[in-house]
Amino acid sequence: MHLLFSAEEDDAALEEELALSWPEAVARRIRRGVFSFEQGDLENSAAIPLVFARQLAANATPIIAASVRSWAEQTSEAILGKLADDQAWRMHVVPHYDSPANTTAGRRRCQLIDAAIQSELKARRRRLWRQRCDASTPWTTCESFVQVVLASPGAGWLSLAPAPLPFVLRRMVWPFPKGEIPVASDPAPPSRAFAKLIEAEVRSGACIGSGEHCVDLGASPGSWTYVALARGAKVTAVDRSPLRADLMRHAELRFVRGDAFTFIPDQPVDWLLCDVIAAPERSIDLLLSWLRRGLTRRFVVTIKFKGRRDYAQLDRLKSELARLTADWFVIRLCANKNEACAFGAAS
Predict the structure, then answer these.
(1) What per-residue string of b and e applies to 221-230 under the rule 16 or more CB within 10 Å gives b?
(2) pLDDT at residue number 218
(3) Residue 184 lies in a domain
(4) How big is the CA angle at 93 (ends 89 and 95), to the nearest 5 degrees?
(5) DSSP 28-91
(6) Residues of the chain with pLDDT under 50
(7) Which pLDDT value is given to residue 8?
(8) Same domain, 129 and 207
């Protein structure tokens, strides 16, 4: 059995996406925000990732545990039976209670269980215990992943994905607890939209670098340009309206007053950034056009929805990105509202 955790309030969207993209999975909702499914060929299915899934827990088994010690013993036995002593691995122990009011207590219990698992492994297989890594960087091919999810103090699931499965499933298995990233907060950018670009960078493991050239389409009032300039990049910002005054004065900014959908750079750039408000098919066509013409090395583009009928546009996007890019992701970010974000690297 495998588990999928939906993005916040996205159960219905994920259910529809599962039926459309993974019809053979026969998924069912087992509690708020959690779907279970059986899938023998998970690796091939994951080539078509699910936009509204926040996290995938592969090879999940139910656990009934009356005490912290019982949680630790059962989890340790599974780890010892699956992972080699010289294998790097990561572990998350997280709550997923139906009642948000119980989440704080759940987190405390998870901390105790995590510590107990560590003590158990340290006593029984110190060499394996030392291989645990607590990083949140993108997966490598030699890392395994253990997820312990509490649905209540005494019941939940254990997911163990041996290497290279986390890397193979990296478009849906995230190195963050339950796939969630705290939304960045900073009063300095012109708007809160900057948090979407920050999250896309964190998830991809690729950040805008000093001296790189970015094109920001539909840039006003300038939040994504703000991030790029702060990184030391050069930015060509395209919009019909100017950016915030301080950004317009920046030495590394070139402002082009015009249409984001008709602008073409003189030569390929390092980053295409686009958070323009437009129909989803227009943003998708814009991104695919830039990739087909080799105009950018990396990209971060949001796809905005007017309603649930627009979600079907994502199938075409995923299919084309798989063909046109070296690596790609499409997900509803924690910082997104009624939209998704496509990001990755061109071929």
Answers:
(1) bbbbbbbbbe
(2) 97
(3) no
(4) 155
(5) EEEETTEEEE--TTHHHHTTS--TTEEEEETTEEEEE-SSHHHHHHHHHHHHHHH--TT-EEEE
(6) none
(7) 75
(8) no
Task: Confirm whether 148 is domain-assigned.
Answer: yes
Predicted local distance difference test score (pLDDT) of residue 118 = 96
Boundary (domain end) residue, out of 155, 179, 203: 179
pLDDT of res. 38:
83
Please tell me whether residues 339 and 211 are part of one structural domain: yes
State how far the Cα of 208 lies from the Cα of 216, in Å rounded to an integer: 12
Q: 3-class DSSP state for residue 143?
A: strand
Q: What gap in Å lies between CA 338 and CA 304, rounded to an integer? A: 6
Q: What is the CATH number of the domain that holds 30?
A: 3.30.2300.20
AA identity, residue 129? W
How confident is the model at residue 310, as a pLDDT? 83
Q: Domain range spanning residue 294?
A: 194-346
Query: Are 139 and 14 contained in the same domain?
Result: yes
For residue 347, give the 3-state DSSP assignment. Answer: coil
Output the six-digit token pair for 246: 């301080």
- The dihedral region occupied by 267, where left means phi > 0, alpha psi between -120 and 50, and beta the remainder, is beta
pLDDT value of position 101: 65
Q: What is the structure's pLDDT at 311?
A: 85
Rounded distance between C-alpha atoms, residue 172 and residue 63, angstroms: 23
Distance separating alpha carbons of residues 324 and 292, to the nearest angstrom: 7
**Residues for the chain: how many in total?**
347
Residues 174 and 202 both lie in one domain = no
Please give the C-alpha separations between residue 170 and each of 133, 166, 320, in angstroms, as whole numbers.
17, 6, 18
Name the DSSP class of 132: B
Question: Please, which residues have CB within 8 angstroms of residue 97's CB and are 6 or more apart in sequence?
Answer: 103, 106, 150, 151, 152
Nearest to 1 by CA among 145, 144, 158: 158
